[in-house]
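Q: How do we represent a protein-ligand complex in a form that can be generated token by token?
A: Start from the inputs.
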Amino acid sequence: WERPDGKPIRQRLLVVANRLPVSAVRRGEESWSLEISGGGLVSALLGVKEFEARWIGWAGVNVPDEAGQRALTKALAEKRCIPVFLDEEIVHQYYNGYCNNILWPLFHYLGLPQEDRLATTRSFQSQFGAYKKANQMFADVVNEHYEEGDVVWCHDYHLMFLPKCLKDYNNQMKVGWFLHTPFPSSEIHRTLPSRSELLRAVLAADLVGFHTYDYARHFVSACTRILGLEGTPEGVEDQGRLTRVAAFPIGIDSERFIRALEVPQVQEHIKELKDRFAGRKVMLGVDRLDMIKGIPQKILAFEKFLEENSYWRDKVVLLQIAVPTRTDVPEYQKLTSQVHEIVGRINGRFGTLTAVPIHHLDRSLDFHALCALYAVTDVALVTSLRDGMNLVSYEFVACQELKKGVLILSEFAGAAQSLGAGAILVNPWNITEVAASIEQALNMSAEEREKRHRHNFLHVTTHTAQEWAETFVSELNDTVIEAQQRIRK
Ligand code: ADQ
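Then emit the structure tokens for the protein with adenosine-5'-diphosphate-glucose bound:
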């Protein structure tokens, strides 16, 4: 990869994800303002500098008029983003419906609420139709911008149909697909009416990646049991064609967090927080407000801890920061009220005139505020019921070089496989166990904390987002070369 002047050419990488890393807000008929949006994938890919990356995805707004679409496309181009325009009906059926009502709970082993189950079963076919149509619309945009030699990297459960659509356009395209959620046991996947079609569409990719070896194994089992294909140590084989399947655990841009702690504004904020919570141990939860994150379970475990440990009642505070997501969905509204109700009850029960045990914020924090919070935390509580990886646990560890706080981590988060030896692993459904782990964390000796932190810090700083992306793309390049060599033989 060299230019005529000898300088290396960065390989073009088309990152295709449901959402672009920016949110667009319309300011006038032809004027838009753009803001970088959050989320795990965005955080991870922000750290990747090795490729000439372009993003293709939905900007999160309905833009029915051509003038608006033209203006937005132009504004996004400056951020190397290319929009896919989806109308309201498609968004409703594809995004709210098939992606978030069916695939998301299923892949996290959460059943649908009883009252929704029949309705969802009835609307299943139309939602799946919209899902395929939306994936085709993404493929159209990719195809329009694709240049020979590009690598196309499709992301997540929203775009399982995309590898097939792309290969139908051009069989020579290098296509990778990565899943950010868990891939469930084949026994769960086989309940999906569209189980086979989805698996076949993913298998059209050259390389299929997951966060953990377990998820990869579940996927291969689903292909062998449901499609009757052959699973090999390399992946899945269908009539001589191999789809490579492997684990690529994601990381974070750890340097960005470590550097942020030196910024004067962050140091100032750290000092404020230390003064504010002087004499108390700080426990922290940072999550999107989603059922998979186990927020009510976490707070109930904290209540149990306070109940059983009167000594700690005025010496510990739990800061729970929860970014609202999918706020228009009744299920999520219910979760918000449930969390508020539990927090109110516990604060009423254990609070005093001067202090409450739980501070719950329903909002996003900016990067610097988040780093300061991570740095002053004594115990982080990550109690997801299921989580593909969970980057919050990584971010906390990156900011703890001075304090060497303790990470309590759900065994059902992918991160348990990488940070398990340094964290206290818990079953988030067992609030007695989580309460006991809080006590263990608060009483842990400095020596033990140091040892556990060392292990995790080493992992987080050596398995970065950048390395993750580079490994995936180089493996994709190699996979395609090997496949071509096999064909030639
Ligand atoms: P998410 O479910 O979004 O990601 P996670 O990996 O924890 O979960 O990433 C969340 C990101 O949002 C983190 O970078 C965090 O800092 C940020 N964030 C969360 N709450 C915040 C708040 N209140 N204020 C500011 N920022 C906040 C999905 C999967 C995960 C997987 C990632 C990446 O569900 O399992 O780890 O993708 O693959």
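The chain has a mean pLDDT of 93. The radius of gyration is 23 Å.
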